[in-house]
Design brief:
The protein has 106 residues and is mainly beta. The chain has one domain: 3-Layer(aba) Sandwich (Rossmann fold). The chain is 9% helix and 46% strand. It contains one helix and six strands, in the order βαβββββ. A six-stranded mixed beta sheet has the order 1-6-5-4-2-3, with helices on one face. It starts with 12 loop residues before the first strand and ends with a strand.
Protein backbone atom coordinates (compact mmCIF):
# COMPACT_ATOMS: atom_id res chain seq x y z
CA UNK A 1 0.00 0.00 0.00
CA UNK A 2 1.41 3.40 -0.97
CA UNK A 3 0.87 6.12 1.62
CA UNK A 4 1.42 9.81 1.08
CA UNK A 5 2.38 12.30 3.80
CA UNK A 6 -0.75 13.67 5.42
CA UNK A 7 -1.54 16.72 7.47
CA UNK A 8 -4.84 16.55 9.30
CA UNK A 9 -6.48 19.68 10.71
CA UNK A 10 -7.91 19.10 14.15
CA UNK A 11 -7.01 19.82 17.74
CA UNK A 12 -4.07 17.48 17.22
CA UNK A 13 -2.14 17.72 13.98
CA UNK A 14 0.14 14.86 12.99
CA UNK A 15 2.46 14.55 10.06
CA UNK A 16 3.55 10.99 9.60
CA UNK A 17 5.11 10.00 6.33
CA UNK A 18 5.78 6.74 4.56
CA UNK A 19 9.34 8.00 4.21
CA UNK A 20 11.36 10.64 6.02
CA UNK A 21 11.25 12.87 2.93
CA UNK A 22 7.90 14.31 4.01
CA UNK A 23 9.20 15.27 7.45
CA UNK A 24 12.38 16.80 6.08
CA UNK A 25 10.42 18.86 3.56
CA UNK A 26 7.98 19.94 6.28
CA UNK A 27 10.81 20.93 8.65
CA UNK A 28 12.58 22.88 5.90
CA UNK A 29 9.35 24.63 4.83
CA UNK A 30 8.68 25.70 8.44
CA UNK A 31 12.15 27.26 8.78
CA UNK A 32 14.35 24.41 9.97
CA UNK A 33 17.64 23.38 8.38
CA UNK A 34 18.12 19.95 6.79
CA UNK A 35 21.22 18.54 5.08
CA UNK A 36 22.50 15.20 3.77
CA UNK A 37 23.57 13.12 6.76
CA UNK A 38 27.06 11.80 7.34
CA UNK A 39 25.50 8.60 8.69
CA UNK A 40 22.36 7.28 6.97
CA UNK A 41 19.87 5.13 8.81
CA UNK A 42 18.12 2.23 7.11
CA UNK A 43 16.34 -0.48 9.03
CA UNK A 44 15.65 -1.21 12.68
CA UNK A 45 16.58 1.52 15.15
CA UNK A 46 15.98 2.21 18.81
CA UNK A 47 14.82 5.73 19.62
CA UNK A 48 14.95 7.44 22.99
CA UNK A 49 12.21 9.80 24.08
CA UNK A 50 13.99 12.91 25.40
CA UNK A 51 11.09 15.26 26.28
CA UNK A 52 7.52 15.10 27.54
CA UNK A 53 5.22 14.65 24.56
CA UNK A 54 1.59 13.69 23.99
CA UNK A 55 2.78 11.62 21.05
CA UNK A 56 5.23 9.50 23.08
CA UNK A 57 3.42 9.61 26.45
CA UNK A 58 4.50 6.68 28.61
CA UNK A 59 7.26 5.52 26.25
CA UNK A 60 10.87 5.95 27.39
CA UNK A 61 12.03 4.34 24.14
CA UNK A 62 10.70 2.54 21.09
CA UNK A 63 11.79 0.22 18.31
CA UNK A 64 11.14 1.80 14.89
CA UNK A 65 12.10 1.42 11.23
CA UNK A 66 14.26 4.26 9.90
CA UNK A 67 14.85 4.99 6.23
CA UNK A 68 16.53 8.32 5.60
CA UNK A 69 19.74 9.93 4.42
CA UNK A 70 19.17 13.48 5.70
CA UNK A 71 19.49 15.08 9.11
CA UNK A 72 17.93 18.07 10.81
CA UNK A 73 20.58 20.62 11.77
CA UNK A 74 18.07 23.11 13.19
CA UNK A 75 14.48 22.52 14.13
CA UNK A 76 11.83 24.95 12.88
CA UNK A 77 11.12 27.89 15.23
CA UNK A 78 8.75 26.90 18.03
CA UNK A 79 9.59 23.18 17.79
CA UNK A 80 11.44 21.05 20.32
CA UNK A 81 13.12 17.67 20.06
CA UNK A 82 11.04 14.85 21.56
CA UNK A 83 12.87 11.71 20.39
CA UNK A 84 16.14 10.76 18.77
CA UNK A 85 17.93 7.74 17.39
CA UNK A 86 21.69 7.25 17.74
CA UNK A 87 22.21 9.27 14.52
CA UNK A 88 19.17 11.48 13.93
CA UNK A 89 16.17 13.43 15.12
CA UNK A 90 13.28 10.97 15.44
CA UNK A 91 10.47 13.24 16.69
CA UNK A 92 9.64 16.92 17.17
CA UNK A 93 6.69 18.91 18.46
CA UNK A 94 5.24 22.38 18.64
CA UNK A 95 2.92 22.20 21.64
CA UNK A 96 1.46 25.68 21.07
CA UNK A 97 0.16 24.59 17.65
CA UNK A 98 -0.29 20.94 18.69
CA UNK A 99 1.84 19.79 15.74
CA UNK A 100 3.85 16.59 16.01
CA UNK A 101 6.16 14.92 13.52
CA UNK A 102 8.18 11.72 13.41
CA UNK A 103 11.11 10.75 11.19
CA UNK A 104 9.97 7.14 10.74
CA UNK A 105 7.05 5.52 8.93
CA UNK A 106 3.91 5.12 10.97
Amino acid sequence: MHRRPTLACSSLVFLCSASATGCNLWWHTLGGKVRPADKREYGHAEIDVVADSDLFRGLPSAAVWMSHGDEALELPPGFELTARSPHAVAGIQNTAKKWYAVQFPS
